[in-house]
Amino acid sequence: MLILALTSALLLTPEPTDPREVALEVRTARFEQILDATVEAIEADIALPVRLEMRRQAIARRIATLKPEIDAYARDMTAGFAVLGEGETAERAAELRQYGEGLTRYLDGLSNELTRGAEVELAGGRQ
Fold first, then answer.
1. Which of 1, 23, 77, 123 has its CA 20 to 30 A from that of 86?
2. CB of 4 closer than 8 Å to CB of 26
3. Secondary structure of the chain as H, E, C letters
4. CA–CA gap between residue 79 and residue 89 (Å, rounded)
5. 127: Cβ–Cβ under 8 A, 6 or more apart, which residues?
6. pTM
7. Tens digit of pLDDT for each residue in 75-97?
């Protein structure tokens, strides 16, 4: 939900009317559903009553499965924000492009962040 909220806030329209804005919000909502389901599955894996290594492997598989979705979403958002900037003032176009690039940087680290978070939980919440 965080990504969708940030995307909506950046677009600065209560209800997107531009089909490009709608497409970005729909794509973000779809990605967040996939991400939320993966996080829920990882949380369930952490709680499994099996050996630690088996839980780590299950989590690693889930994150590996999510990685192509993260990459596709990053590409879609970078392109989408660049297209959205077409016809805007140079300043607004740059702002939209920078947001798309910033989102991509965040997404590039998401797999590692999920892995780190799972490791902390597997260690009993200790860092």
1. 1
2. no
3. CHHHHHHHHHHCCCCCCCHHHHHHHHHHHHHHHHHHHHHHHHHHHHHCCCCHHHHHHHHHHHHHHHHHHHHHHHHHHHHHHHHHCCCCCHHHHHHHHHHHHHHHHHHHCHHHHHHHHHHHHHCCCCC
4. 18
5. 120
6. 0.82
7. 999 999 888 888 889 998 898 88
Average pLDDT over residues 12-26: 76
Mean pLDDT of 94-123: 91
Distance CA 5, CA 9 (A): 6
The per-residue pLDDT for 84 is 87
Band of residue 100 on the pLDDT scale cut at 50, 70, 90? confident
Nearest Cα neighbor of 78 from 27, 16, 30 is: 27
d(CA 19, CA 42): 34
Question: For residue 26, which of 3, 51, 60, 56 has the smallest C-alpha distance?
Answer: 3
What's the average model confidence in pLDDT over 9-15? 54
Tokens for 14, please give them.
């209560």
